[in-house]
Specification:
By secondary structure, the protein is of the alpha/beta class. It folds into 3 domains: 139 residues, Fumarate Reductase Iron-sulfur Protein, Chain B, domain 2 (Orthogonal Bundle); 174 residues, FAD/NAD(P)-binding domain; 155 residues, FAD/NAD(P)-binding domain. Helix content is 33%, strand content 16%. Strands 3-2-1-4-16 form a 5-stranded parallel β-sheet. It has a 5-stranded parallel β-sheet with strand order 6-14-7-8-9. It starts with 10 loop residues before the first helix and ends in an 8-residue tail after the last helix.
C-alpha cells in the first residue's frame, strides 16, 4: 500500500487485486437505449450502471498516490476515496463523500464534460487504456443518494445571516446548497416560473430528465433553502434593494448569460428562424414536444439546419430529430476535430442519424414570398492558421456557395450577458462585453455582493459554474463571519 495513504472501509478486500489485475479490467460501457428507438422520443438515452458494473468500474482505479483526478474536478470531489467506497459496496459513505463536495451530483453525473477534466488526467487514460468512468459512477451514486440519503444531517447550526441568490442555475443552486450547509438562511430568486435555470430550459430531457433536476432542487428545499420564482432582479427588486430594504446580508449573482447571439446575415428575421435559447426553452421548459397537451407550440421542420458546433447546437439538432425532422443537419464552419461539443453527445448524435455538414459557413437564409424559410446558402471553408482559441481558423473558399434546402433554422452560436440586472446596478463593474467583473473568490466591486457562472465568464459548462458557486459560497461565509460579523436582521 502507498505510504501515507488513508485506509478506507473495505480496503482489505479491495487490495486483494494487484495493479496488473486492475489493468486487465476493461472500461465498463454505459448501457444505452437503442438509437432508432430513442431518436423518436425524449426519454433519457443512458440507462445507468447496475451495482455489479459500478463496482467493477470502481475497481479499475489504480489508487494513485497523488490523485490528479481531484485537481481536475472543479468542485474538488475526493475521487479516489469516492471510488474506494463504491468498490467496497459502502453506498452511504460514497454518497456522503460525493455530496460533501458536490451539491448537484445527479446533474453533473449526466452533463459534466468529465473527459476534459477529471477523466482527462486519470492515469488509466494516459497510455494505459481508457480512463476510469468517473462521470458514470458519479451518476450511479447520485441516483442512489436521491432515494436514500438525508441531507439534513449535514447542516451546521443556524448563523442568523441571510443570503440572497439571484438565479437558480448550476452556480446559484450550488452556492445555495453550500451556504445552507454552513447554517445561513438562503433565498433564491428565479426569473422564470420554475427553478433550474439553464438546466431546465436549455438541456433536453433525453440528456437530463426534469425529475432529476426537481429532486436536486427539492433536496435544497429540505435543507431550508427558499426559492421564489417569477422575480426579475433588476425589475422586481434591484440588488441594492435586496440588501437595504429586504434585509439580506450578502448577495450572490448567478443570473447566467441568456441573451442570444445571431450571425447578422440576411434572412435571420424570416419565420422559421429560432435562436437555440428560444427553441430549447419552448421544447424543454414549455413542453412544446407534447403540444397540444402543453400550451406552447414549436415549429417542427421536415428539414432542419442547426448552426454551431457546441453542446447547445448538439442539443438543438437532436431535439429537431425527435420532433420528427426527416433531415436534422448540423452546419459547422470548422471540422469535427475542432467541435467543442462533448464526445459522447457527438457519438450519440451520429448514432441517431444526425447529418454533420462540416467546414461550411452560412451566408444568408432564403425565404418564400410569404416570409417562411426555404433554404440556407452556405460557403465551403478550409482550415488555415490557428486563431486566438488555438483552433485552426476557417477560411472561405471563393465561389463555393450553394443552397441547402430547409424549412427551419436554429442559430446556436452562443449567448451573452443580459443587461437587465447590471443596468440598474451601476455600482457593479462590468467588462466591455457586459459581464460582471469578479475576482478569483467571486467578489465584485460592491461590498457583500458576489457573482459566478456565465455572468462572469460567458457561456461555459455546468461544472465550471458550479465551481464558481462553491468558491463564492466559501468567500461569502468568510465575509459574513469575519467582516460583517453581525446579521442585518429581517426587515420590519
Amino acid at each position: 500500500m502507498p505510504t501515507g495513504r488513508r485506509r478506507f472501509a473495505g480496503e482489505d478486500s479491495m487490495m486483494a487485486l494487484t495493479p496488473k489485475e486492475r489493468m486487465a479490467i476493461p472500461r465498463q460501457k454505459m448501457p444505452e437505449r437503442a438509437p432508432d428507438v430513442r431518436n423518436h422520443d425524449f426519454k433519457e438515452v443512458n440507462i445507468g450502471f447496475q451495482e455489479h458494473l459500478a463496482k467493477l468500474e470502481a475497481e479499475r482505479c489504480l489508487r494513485c498516490k497523488d490523485g490528479k483526478c481531484v485537481d481536475g474536478c472543479p468542485v474538488g470531489i475526493e475521487i479516489p476515496k469516492f471510488l474506494d467506497f463504491i468498490a467496497a459496496g459502502d453506498m452511504k459513505a460514497a454518497a456522503e463523500c460525493l455530496l460533501g463536495a458536490n451539491s448537484l451530483p445527479g446533474i453533473t453525473g449526466r452533463v459534466c464534460p468529465q473527459e476534459e477534466q477529471c477523466e482527462q488526467v486519470c492515469i488509466r487514460g494516459k497510455g494505459r487504456g481508457a480512463s476510469v468512468a468517473i462521470g458514470h459512477l458519479e451518476r450511479y451514486v447520485a441516483d442512489w443518494a436521491r432515494e436514500n440519503l438525508d441531507m439534513k444531517t449535514m447542516l451546521a447550526p443556524a448563523s442568523g445571516f441571510r443570503v440572497a441568490v439571484v438565479g437558480s442555475g448550476p452556480a446559484g443552486l450550488t452556492a445555495a446548497g453550500e451556504l445552507a450547509k454552513k447554517g445561513h438562511d438562503v433565498t433564491i430568486f428565479e426569473a422564470l416560473h420554475e427553478p433550474g435555470g439553464v438546466l431546465v430550459y436549455g438541456i433536453p430531457e433525453f440528456r437530463l430528465p426534469n425529475k432529476v433536476i426537481e429532486a436536486e432542487v427539492n433536496r435544497l428545499r429540505e435543507m431550508g433553502v427558499k426559492i421564489i420564482t417569477n422575480v426579475v432582479i433588476g425589475r422586481t427588486f434591484t440588488v441594492k434593494e435586496l440588501m437595504d430594504q429586504e434585509g439580506f446580508d450578502a448577495v450572490f449573482i448567478a443570473n447566467g448569460a441568456g441573451l442570444p447571439i445571431f450571425l447578422n446575415i440576411p434572412g435571420e428575421n424570416l419565420k422559421g428562424v429560432y435562436s437555440a435559447n428560444e427553441y430549447l426553452t419552448r421544447v424543454n421548459l414549455m413542453r412544446a414536444y407534447d403540444f397540444p397537451n402543453a400550451d406552447t407550440p414549436v415549429i417542427s421542420g421536415r428539414r432542419v439546419v442547426v448552426l454551431g458546433g457546441g453542446n447547445v447546437a448538439m442539443d438543438a439538432v437532436r431535439t429537431a430529430k425527435r420532433l420528427g425532422a426527416e433531415r436534422a443537419m448540423l452546419v459547422y464552419r470548422r471540422s469535427r476535430e475542432e467541435m467543442p461539443a462533448r464526445i459522447e453527445e457527438v457519438h450519440h448524435a451520429e448514432e441517431e442519424h444526425i447529418e454533420f455538414i462540416m467546414l461550411h459557413a452560412p451566408v444568408r437564409i432564403l425565404g418564400t414570398e410569404d416570409g417562411w424559410v426555404r433554404g440556407i446558402e452556405c460557403q465551403r471553408m478550409e482550415l488555415g492558421e490557428p486563431d486566438d482559441s488555438g483552433r485552426r481558423r476557417p477560411v472561405p473558399i471563393k465561389g463555393s456557395e450553394y443552397v441547402i434546402d430547409c424549412d427551419l433554422v436554429v442559430v446556436a452560436i452562443g449567448t451573452r450577458a443580459n443587461p437587465l440586472l447590471t443596468a440598474t446596478t451601476p455600482e457593479l463593474k462590468t467588462n466591455k462585453w457586459g459581464y460582471i467583473i469578479a475576482d478569483e473568490h467571486g467578489a465584485t466591486s460592491m461590498p457583500g455582493v458576489y457573482a459566478g457562472g456565465d455572468i462572469i465568464r460567458g457561456s461555459a459548462t455546468v461544472i465550471l459554474a458550479m465551481g464558481d458557486g462553491k468558491r463564492a459560497a466559501a468567500s461569502i461565509d468568510k465575509y459574513l463571519r469575519e467582516v460583517k460579523k453581525t446579521p442585518t436582521g429581517r426587515p420590519a
